[in-house]
Amino acid sequence: MAAPVGPDPVISGRAQDNNLMAAAMLNDLLNNALDPGYRARSGAGKKRHWWDGPMVLLVCVAAGLLLVTAYQQTHRSAPASQSARQDLESRIRNLQSEAVTMDDEAKQLAAQVAALRDQQLPAGDDSALRGLELAAGSIAVTGPGVSIEVGEPKQSPSSASTGRTGTASQPQDSVLRDRDIRAIVNQLWTTGAEAIAVNGIRLTATSAIRFAGESILVDFQTLSSPYTVEAVGDRNKMLLGFADSATARKFKTEEAVYGISFTFSGKSKLTLPSVTVMQQSDASLGPAPSSTPASSPAPTPTEHPS
Amino acid sequence: MIAALALILGVVLGLIFRPTVPLWLEPYLPIAVVAALDAVFGGVRARLDRIFDAKVFVVSFISNVLVAALIVFLGDKLGVGGQLSTAVVVVLGIRIFGNAAAIRRHVFRA
After folding, report:
1. Is residue A108 part of a domain?
2. Quick one: what percent of chain B has pLDDT higher than 70?
3. Chain A: nearest CA to B80, how far in angstroms?
């Protein structure tokens, strides 16, 4: 049996001592598996009690109960969490489809409102109104422009990628962040874009491109890679300006270093959707209808009310 | 033999009544099971060694379960619950193996 071995008189280092201690402890653990109480009691004269038998049986029943309870607990909670997850998933999907339906309805109603308004307005030059509508993103626009696509580096497909597009969870170490998308968008605005949409979400003066929970949000809608920024405007000017910009150089570098995908090209015809709902939080009707402001330069793209 | 029947009775009772464990006790259940297994294996080996003692068995069972739960509880409070659980499982696991080996030697003479 392993008795604690004293330090060797010749090599009595502290490390040696510790090693022997550890070895003795492990020996003790491995060889004295039996509870020492049994051996201690075996020597002493045994006094038999009437409750010995029932107590042992009670403990055995308790052990069996404990065993099966723990088993059931582990196996019952796993399906519970699974079903909770499925329930949440289905609720999210229902709400998402509901949101899409309401979105379409809102767009239809907005188109009706616009049509009624156009009926009421006196016929004449409505380019000022169209210009404002274009800037506010309340009408869909079509025209030549550029399309820029950036994507996360290719990774092994994860199990989370089974959701529909736009809902796949982002890989933990996403290279692209909100500021990258913002940089592209701002670069396009400066080089003369007249309307911009990111992954089909039209940007307006009040749009926010943010980053939360490892995914990029545009107007509180989650996007997933690849991100497509489409801009309608002077195609050549935007292409040249973008190709020459620091943003494009940065993406070229990241393409080489991190392996993100990055392409941009001019398009002869792009269609950008209108924004769904125009929120007016502070604006109210003026005191009197003033004359329309001096007509702004007519927008290049041909537009049509959606 | 009767003890084995009692163990099976406990399992059957658990299957029939499906006792629910309060949420605050749930983290201690797996460790308590390992501790209980250690006590049970120790008791079986002691019986085969002909040194079984009812009092030692009962006390070792209860104290094993309580101490294991206490260690996990303390570990949770100190932020090292996972590590302490691992330590308990390793030590008790080694003891279970040792006792199981002794039982095997008794039963199969090998």
Report:
1. yes
2. 99
3. 22
Say whether pLDDT at A84 is over 70: yes
The pLDDT, as a whole number, for residue A95 is: 94
Q: Which residues of A touch B18 (CB under 8 A)?
A: 72
* Whether residue A162 has pLDDT greater than 50: no
Provide the number of structural domains found in chain A. Answer: 2
Short-list B94, B64, B66, B36, CA closest to A67? B36
Closest listed residue to residue A185, CA positions, set A144, A231, A227: A231
Task: Mark which residues 51-80 of B lie under 8 Å from A by CB.
Answer: 51-62, 65
Report ipTM for this prediction. 0.86
Cβ separation A33–B14 shorter than 8 A: no
Residue A60 belongs to domain spanning: 54-113
Percent of chain A with pLDDT over 90: 9
- Domain annotation covers residue A301: no
Residues A79, A175 within the same domain: no
**Same-domain status, A188 and A62:** no
The verdict on a CB contact (< 8 Å) between A61 and B9 is yes
Higher pLDDT, A305 or B92: B92
**CB-based contacts of A251-256 (< 8 A; 24+ apart in sequence):** A251/A150, A251/A180, A254/A175
List chain B residues with CB under 8 Å of A49: 54-55
Q: Is B11 near chain A, with CB under 8 Å?
A: yes
- Cβ proximity of A219 and A207 under 8 Å: yes
CA–CA separation, A213 vs A89, rounded Å?
18
Do A182 and A254 lie in a common domain?
yes
| pLDDT recorded at residue A230 | 92
